[in-house]
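REVIEWER CHECKLIST
Item 1: Sequence provided? yes
Item 2: Single chain? yes
Item 3: Sequence as submitted:
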Amino acid sequence: MAVKPPFKWAGSKLRVMPALLKHLPEGKRLVEPFAGSCAVMMNTDYDAYLIADANHHLVNTYKMMAYHTDLLLAELEALFCAGSVGTESQRGEFYYGIRASLNNDGNLTHVEKAARFMYLNRHGYNGMCRYNLGGQFNVPFGKYMFPYFPGDEVRAFADKAKRASFVCADFTETLELVMPGDVVYCDPPYNPQSRSKSFTKYHSVDFDLSCQQRLAAMLANLAEEGFPVVASNSDSDLTNSQYGVGHFNLHKITVARSVGAATGGNKSAAEIIAVSAYV
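Item 4: Structure as written out by the authors:
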């Protein structure tokens, strides 16, 4: 049975772990430059993990779950209790107060920041994680009656995190830390399905075509050097052009849409798992 991560997360790999596990090879350490919800870490069994993301709120929360578990859960429970009182309007007002606190209160402790981020994740619209150009979290209130409290998931994360180190870094910095014995798995913001559609944001910065091409080139170089490299992306012309040039074998899968996806229309999407062809 799959182990659920502590976060609701658009694009979480929890649903595709059976397909992904077929392509993740053995190794001493798994390196994830786009760790997101950490569903992959929670559902694999490497000796060690290098867990990285460019989102400082997210990486701080990883660390607080790992190193200050009880303090974080106590703070989070207090927020859940306070935020469950009153009418929907009052609960929304509380949510926006917590959001403003995360964005603007420079006196918050690391534990308080992490608890607020997790509270917003569980109470925000569709589990989205979105920032404006100023780097401020701006997901609206989700209007849920009974948001799930992820106590068991936080404790499971803390136990698994004994094998992990956490860094807040751009993917270029993280990939420079790869060592012999590592397996690299990348789950970046996806290429648009067509060139007419826009690229997505990664934290508060556009993850545009140049970012996609730079990532693919770095992964191809690592693959040529003999490192096991696996990457997920959309099944699009761009992805096929970036990864389908001899360095990778491309495996197509169909994935049920996760939180944050547009409602209506098709409920599934085609994705590619690119696996280095040299190992």
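Item 5: Key structural point noted by reviewer: The chain has a mean pLDDT of 91.
Item 6: Recommendation: ____
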